[in-house]
Amino acid sequence: MAITQPPTDKKYYTLTEANKTLPLVKAIVSDISALAHSMRERHEKLENTTGSERDEIENTLESDQDRLQELIDELSELGIELKDFFTGLIDFPCWNNGREVYLCWKLGEPTIGHWHEIWAGFAGRKKLKNEG
Hints:
This protein is α+β, with helices and mostly antiparallel strands. Helix content is 45%, strand content 20%. It has one domain (15-127). It is built from two helices and five strands. α1 (15-46) packs antiparallel against α2 (51-77). The chain starts with 14 loop residues before the first helix and ends in a 5-residue tail after the last strand. The mean pLDDT is 92.
């Protein structure tokens, strides 16, 4: 027996719903990406630092890690999956033709213009067909 209805325990987005969510999502993902880059730079600096400056960097990294987790949790609460911190790559679960697929968006893209099978990942992205 084929499953034609999506499971009710998970949020699924239509393309319209996902695009309406983008302003909020862009803000969250932009913060995640900026924080991830900043943390990476400070982590690299940490390797060559000693004394009180090292303690200060460690403390800010710890604080930033907490903030990063808060931002990731915000996306999770929306039902959106973060795939790459640095490029700001995310997936919106979507129910299409009786199966789950992902609507795929990356920081810097104006709207959601791609999708992929759940197993395909970024390399399997396909352009959405223009409707209308």
